[in-house]
Design a protein that fits this description.
This protein has one helix and nine strands. By secondary structure, it is α+β, with helices and mostly antiparallel strands. It has a single domain, classed as Immunoglobulins (Immunoglobulin-like, Sandwich). The strands form two sheets. Strands 1, 3, 4, 6 and 7 form a five-stranded antiparallel β-sheet that branches. The model is unreliable at 1-25 (pLDDT under 50).
């Protein structure tokens, strides 16, 4: 009976050790790396100063572990995107995202409309919660 208990105890210890080793040997470089802040550049832009009125915004993340800062690619575990916060009262489309790339978005003003709108980059923080990190820039449409 003692010999059986010893074998069971050794098997349990082996399973726990194997589980711990598997956790420590993960090839995912984002484990434990949390997004803390997003900066969007340019911070302010006047579309009249850009070709075709299209402005390319870039999102850069500040992370809890290196590399930091780094381009924010909006891929898992940092799922997210760019958007334009057009006015809702009264509803109006001043600008919209017309193309996206690796950590970038091209935003264009609507024809014949003027105003200033926030360009927003939002992403999951990757910390096991529902926390979303947001960075904001301003676009002025002529």
């Amino acid at each position: 009976m003692n010999r059986l208990r010893t074998h069971i105890a050794l098997a349990a210890i082996t399973l726990v050790a194997a589980g711990l080793l598997a956790c420590g040997n993960s090839s995912d470089p984002n484990i434990g790396r949390v997004l803390l802040e997003i900066s969007v550049s340019p911070a302010t832009a006047d579309a009249s100063q850009f070709s075709n009125g299209q402005v390319v915004f870039t999102a850069t993340g500040t992370f809890s572990l290196p590399p930091s800062p780094a381009p924010l690619t909006f891929t898992a575990p940092y799922a997210g995107s760019f958007s334009v916060a057009n006015p809702t009262n009264p509803p109006a489309t001043i600008a919209s995202v017309v193309a996206t790339g690796n950590s970038t978005a091209t935003v264009q003003c609507a024809s014949g409309v003027s105003g200033t709108v926030p360009v927003v980059a939002s992403s999951a923080a990757n910390n096991g919660t529902q926390i979303v990190i947001t960075g904001i820039a301003q676009l002025t449409c002529p």
